[in-house]
């Protein structure tokens, strides 16, 4: 999310701003709403930059960015595509290297909801490119991840309730591969993907029982779905994951009560840990990393605003939730269409 022009908290915090993504709790001037479904995705091209994206009801993608030493900038609308973006599909962003960001959405230009890609090369945005869809099936949810400058893997939940994959090898996109159904052929939602080294991919999805389910790709083979459960008394709703240097991964979850949880991978999975309750019940969630150890979790609340917390390193406490407001525009962000599970 490209956001400029936030005033500094004060001279005493200038030094802190140079190292941490902290921002005054100042709302945008317009009383606008941001989607209450899983509409956020963030990418970290470098250790001192974060770019987050949302989809608006005006059918364009909006961007909000943080740069070390400058803080968060203003909202930037990325323009109107030639197709109709599906707000219910959300947006997925990946950083392939220090300058290149790819964003993916589902949209309709004809009879089916297909996958579309747009790329930032460090200077300009490309036009939108259609990557098609899995046969005659609509795309309901999507998540993409990148292991290197010449690799992207995109995963979608389609209207046949199968998981499908499409990969890019630096030159060409593959055809769609059917990775099969979910556990016992049941419904799932909240798809998340992350690379944890050049050849390995982690997937998370939420089952109809509210559990977190995990699947991974190693040595050319996909595992089955593993039931990781969840905190006692909680039922998960959405999930997002992002990798960090050293094969570390952070995954964030929202539950049906609007709380936010996270767990990490560092040679083993941590327990699910609950964060402080956001100012408004959380729906969508996104993770980003900064510096060598810091991480940020962003969520959108039922009040239509974005909220953000951060942890400078694994031994530090999480900051209080910061209010990032809403886009400064006449458009509003409506609740996401909830697709069949």
Describe this structure in words.
- Helix content is 1%, strand content 48%.
- A hairpin with a 4-residue loop joins strand 25 and strand 26.
- The N terminus and C terminus are likely disordered.
- It contains 1 helix and 27 strands.
- The chain has a single domain, classed as Neuraminidase, CATH 2.120.10.
- Strands 1, 2, 3, 4 and 5 form a 5-stranded antiparallel sheet that branches. Strands 6, 7, 8, 9 and 10 form a 5-stranded antiparallel sheet that branches. Strands 15, 16, 17, 18 and 19 form a 5-stranded antiparallel sheet that branches.
- With 341 residues, the protein is an all-beta fold.
Q: Number of helical segments? A: 1
- Name the structural class: mainly beta
Helical content class: under 10%
CATH homologous superfamily title: Fucose-specific lectin
Main sheet: strands, sense, barrel: 5 strands, antiparallel
> What global shape is seen?
globular
Query: What's the CATH architecture?
Result: 6 Propeller
First CA to last CA: what distance? 29 Å
Number of strands: 27
Q: What share of the residues does DSSP label as strand, in percent? A: over 45%
Order of helices and strands: HEEEEEEEEEEEEEEEEEEEEEEEEEEE
Give start-end ranges of low-pLDDT stretches.
Answer: 1-36, 329-339
What integer is the average pLDDT?
A: 84
- The CATH class is Mainly Beta
* Total discrete domains: 1
CATH topology label: Neuraminidase
| Radius of gyration based on Cα positions | 18 Å
Pfam family, one: DUF8189
Domain PLL-like beta propeller: 46-322
Signal peptide: 1-27
Keywords: Signal
